[in-house]
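ok posting inputs for the zinc ion job
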Amino acid sequence: MIFKSAKINAFRTWGLLLTMLGMGLMILGTAGIVFWGHAGKVVAAVGLVIGLISMMASLAIYFWAGMLSTSAVQVDCPECHKLTKMLGKTDRCMFCHTILTMDPEQANITAEQLESQQLKS
Ligand SMILES: [Zn+2]
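and the output
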């Protein structure tokens, strides 16, 4: 899956999605007890376990994103002139999603060429 956004933002999106999923599953699981009584307890248990796992995963992603953003490089975006953070050699601007690069070899190719390169590797 390719996100047309900066890597740090993509991590945050995934973290948020997993948190929502986990909370949703836990709420649905608990609701299962109310609707189906005894049989719902199994649904509730499964929902709670999966919900907890995805909450933990989202926590890990948030933690990882936090660690990564400390090593991110701050640059002035040449397109929108805002201060953005870059991860790795190529990343997108957080605000206008322009692809930025630190690598002079890749600095002159188009966004489409870069995307096909990223797909191959
Ligand atoms: Zn920008």
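notes: The chain has a mean pLDDT of 82. The helical segments are 7-36, 40-70, 111-120.
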